[in-house]
Amino acid sequence: MVILHQFPAMLGLPNASPYCLKVETFLRMAGIPYEVRHTPSFRGPRGKLPFIQLGEQSIPESETILDTLQPMAAADHLQPLSEEQRLQGHLLARMADYSLAWMLMYERWLVPVTWPRTREAFFTSVPWLIRPLVAALFQHKVKRDCWGHGVGRLIMPERRSRLQQDLQCVSDVLGDKPFLFGDRPSRYDASCFGVIANIARDPLGIPSKQVLQGYPNLVAWSERILRDYFKYPL
Questions:
Q1: At CB < 8 A and 24+ separation, what contacts does 199-203 make?
Q2: Phi, psi (degrees; rounded to nearest 5) at 69
Q3: Is 4 in contact with 50 (CB distance < 8 Å)?
Q4: What global pTM score does this model have?
Q5: Cis peptide upstream of residue 50 (ω within 30 degrees of 0)
Q6: Cα–Cα distance between 40 and 147 in angstroms, integer?
Q7: Which three-class secondary structure state does DSSP give residue 64?
Q8: Which residue among 41, 60, 74, 175 is least enclosed by CB atoms within 10 Å?
């Protein structure tokens, strides 16, 4: 049995972390039995979530987790991929993890209009006396991380342009197919869904949600995965 350590559900999604949602989605798509445990991030092997336990082994980092889980997938659950499709999927997954997910993080934590709603949503469990300090410290860490990544150095038109380019790539690969590479899902659907669902269902007012509306096939694909694999209503 796989034990998945992740954050609790919030923001109207199974998980507000694109990386946690990515892993849980793959487990469901692949038909792998698992159990969820809500765990503080500092207890992870690298101080982050998600991570999984397989017996005595703890495995961190979402891509490493998917590498580990892929051979455990139930027969006929996943789409067989050509070498070209695997290469395309690999690039899409990296783009989702290192571009789209960072855009999402920036917009949640560092856009002035969005920040008050983010602060309210993410820190309600913190005692009110220290809540402003804890929220400010976390926002400072996100600002430092985004600056180091590079997304924090972009001006708004540059971020919007890159977001559109990324979404266009995923939209073009998906086309009118049920999943990125055919009638069945692959790990790359899970990777892209983790962040796109967080944009599509965002309740905080992030700017990228409006941009995503220009790609109706991505919105429909995201909603279908939520319905079929998580039983979430449309």
A1: 199/100, 199/104, 201/11, 201/12, 201/13, 201/226, 202/11, 203/11, 203/12, 203/117, 203/121
A2: -80, -25
A3: yes
A4: 0.96
A5: yes
A6: 25
A7: helix
A8: 175
